[in-house]
Automatic annotation (TrEMBL), chains A, B:
The name this protein goes by in its record: LacI family DNA-binding transcriptional regulator
UniProt xrefs under SMART domains: HTH_LACI
HTH lacI-type domain boundaries: 5-62
Keywords: DNA-binding, Transcription, Transcription regulation
PANTHER family assigned: HTH-TYPE TRANSCRIPTIONAL REGULATOR GALS (PTHR30146:SF109), LACI-RELATED TRANSCRIPTIONAL REPRESSOR (PTHR30146)
UniProt key word DNA-binding: yes
SUPFAM superfamilies, alphabetized: lambda repressor-like DNA-binding domains, Periplasmic binding protein-like I
UniProt GO molecular function: DNA binding
Keyword Transcription tagged: yes
Highest taxon in the source lineage: Bacteria
Family matches, as Pfam families: LacI, Peripla_BP_3
CDD domains documented for this protein: HTH_LacI, PBP1_EndR-like
Amino acid sequence: MKKRVSIKDIAEKVGVSTALVSYVLNGKEREARVGQEIAKKIRKVAADLNYQPNLIARGLKFGRTNTLGLIVADISNPFFATLARSIELEAQKNGYTVLFGSSDEQLDKSQNLINTFLSRQVDGLIITPVAGSQSQIEELKTKGIPFVLMDRGFSDLETSVVVTDNHEAMYSAVKLLTDNGYRKIGMIAYDTPLTHMQDRIKGYKDALKDAGIRFQSKWLKKVPFEDYKERVARAVLQLIDKKSQPVDALVFATNSISVQALKIIHAQKLVVPDDLGIISFDESDAFEFFYTSITYIKQNLNEISKKAVQTLLKNINSVTPKVERVIVPSTIVVGVSSGKKLKEKVVV
Amino acid sequence: MKKRVSIKDIAEKVGVSTALVSYVLNGKEREARVGQEIAKKIRKVAADLNYQPNLIARGLKFGRTNTLGLIVADISNPFFATLARSIELEAQKNGYTVLFGSSDEQLDKSQNLINTFLSRQVDGLIITPVAGSQSQIEELKTKGIPFVLMDRGFSDLETSVVVTDNHEAMYSAVKLLTDNGYRKIGMIAYDTPLTHMQDRIKGYKDALKDAGIRFQSKWLKKVPFEDYKERVARAVLQLIDKKSQPVDALVFATNSISVQALKIIHAQKLVVPDDLGIISFDESDAFEFFYTSITYIKQNLNEISKKAVQTLLKNINSVTPKVERVIVPSTIVVGVSSGKKLKEKVVV
DNA sequence: CTGAAAGCGCTAACAC
DNA sequence: GTGTTAGCGCTTTCAG
C-alpha cells in the first residue's frame, strides 16, 4: 500500500510548517491569522494531493475517536440487524462510526468484545447484555466508560438503558386474548433473568390476574437459548396435549420462538385461532405466508436505536453523566390469530 | 471518563522506563534480555492496574490498525447480515475488528463510507459495490488500498472479487425446470449492470437455449431497486396474464423478489407448481409457511465471507498483491415448487 | 541488562 | 502575523 499523504507532505510542498496547514485545513485560519495567500495555496495543494486527514492520529491527540462499539447478541438475526442499521444511521448523523460484534449470548465473547473495543478506544458502547454479565458492565461503570444497554437490562444494576415497554406490551397482548374470550393462555419464553424476558412474563401474569384467571405454572414454558428449537417444539406439544387440559391460546416471547412454535402448530394441524389463539412478540418474515395473519407486538426498533445512540452521546459529552432509563412504546398489530374465541365449540 | 492506564503509568509505578514495559508486555523480554525480577514486577503491576494497550497509538506507530471496513448494501437485510456475521468471525480469528456501513445501493453513500473508513485508516475494505461505482473502486486501486469485492463485481474492471457461481447456479435451476417439462419460463431480476445479476440472467438464457427453447424478451422483467415491490407485483401480473400466453414457470433473481412475487401469486390463487413452477435465488424465512416448499439456490454465504476476508488479508500482507477471482459453488435445494409439470392439463 | 529518544500524524499553546 | 514545539501512547534503535 502506498503511503498516505499527511499534513507534513503538504507543509513541505508549500514550504510552511505543519501547524499552518493544520490551522487552515481546520478552518481556523482566522484565529491563527494565517495569510490569505498562503491559506489558498495550502488548500490547493491539499486538494491536489487528495489529502484525507488521519483520524487515528487525531484520535490519539484528543483521546476520542468518534467511534462507537456495538455489541449485539447476533448480527445475523434480523432483529439485531435492524437495530444495527438504525444505529449506524444515527451514529453517522453525529459524526460517529460503528464497530460491531456478536456475543452469541456468551459471557466470554461479550467480555472479549468489550476488551477489544476498549483497546480500540471507542468513545462509548451500546450493548445488548448477556445474562450474568453484570460484573462486566459494572467494570465499565467503575472505569467510567460511557455505555448504554439496549433491548434488555439487569434488575439489580443501575445503568442507562433503552428498552421497549415489555411489561405493558405483553400485558395488553394477553388482555386482548382474555377480552376475546380465551381463558387458558400459555406462554413460551426464553429462560433468562434479563429484564426484557422477566418483564414480558410479568406482563403476562398480571394480565391473567386482572382478568380474574388463576395462573397455572404448567402454562409457562421457559426454554434455553441453546437448542431452543427442540425445546420449543416439546413445549408446544405439552401445552396443546389433549389429554391434559390443553391451553386455548399461546403467546410467544420472541419471533424466533413464534416461528418455531407455528411450525409445530401447523404440523399438528391445529386451526388458528379456532383451536388456538396466537400472539407473537416481534414480527417475522415467516408470518407472511402463515395461513392466517398473526397478531404481534411491534417494537419501535428505529426509535430504540435512535434513543440508544442519543443517550450514549449525552453520556459521552457530559462531564457528569447520569443514569437514564428510556422506555419506548410499542404497538400491537392485530391479525386474525387472536380473533374472538368461538363460544360454543362442537365436541365430536 | 477516567484516564485510561498507559504504559507510562506502569513504568512510573515500577520505576523503570516505558521501553522495558513495552518489551515485557509484548513478550520480547528475551530479545531485550530484561531481568526476570523486573519482568515479573512489570507484569504484576500491569495486571493490577488492569492495563489495556491502546491500539490507536499502536496503529499510529505501525501504520496499520487491524481494522477492516465492511460496506454492504443494507445491513438490515438478512442476506448481508449473515455475510457480516461470518466476516466478523473470520476477521476476529485473524485479530481484526470490523467497521461497517450500508450503502443503500447509492453512489454518494458508498463514497462517503469509503472516505470515512480510509480516514480511519482501515487496513482494507470488503465491499458489495454499488452500480456505477467503478471510479470509486478504481481510485482504491490507484491508491493501493487493499480491497475485495463481494457478492458482485464489474465486468469492466479487474479486481479481486468473491462471488457465488451465479451463472451455473441459475443455469442449473432453469435446467431443472426444463427437464421437468416447463417450456415458458419467465424471470424477474433487478435492473442493474452488476455482474451478479447479469450472470444470473445469462445463466437463465443459456439454459433456455440449451433446452432448445427460444427466449422471448417479454419473459424477462427487470425491476429497479427503488419501489421494487410494486414493480415486481406488476411484473408478475403481466407474466401470468391469461390473455397473452402466460408463462408456466418463474425464476426469481433474489429472495426479496421471490417473497414479493409469491405474495402476488398467492393472492391470485395460482397453484404452485401446477399452474406455475417456481425457483428462487436465495432462501427466505418467509418460505417457511408458503403452502408448498420452494425450490431455491442456496449460496454458501459462510464460505463467501470467509474467502472474502482471506483474500483481503492476503492482499494486505503481500507486497505485490494480485487480483484474485474466487467463485464459490452454490447448491440447489429442491422443493415441490419446481416439480414435474403435469403433462395434460385439463382445460375447463 | 536498561533507558533515552525519535517518530507515527495531528493540534494548540506559546514563542518569535 | 507566522512558525516552533511539545505531546497524545506506543515501539524500537541505539547508546550506555
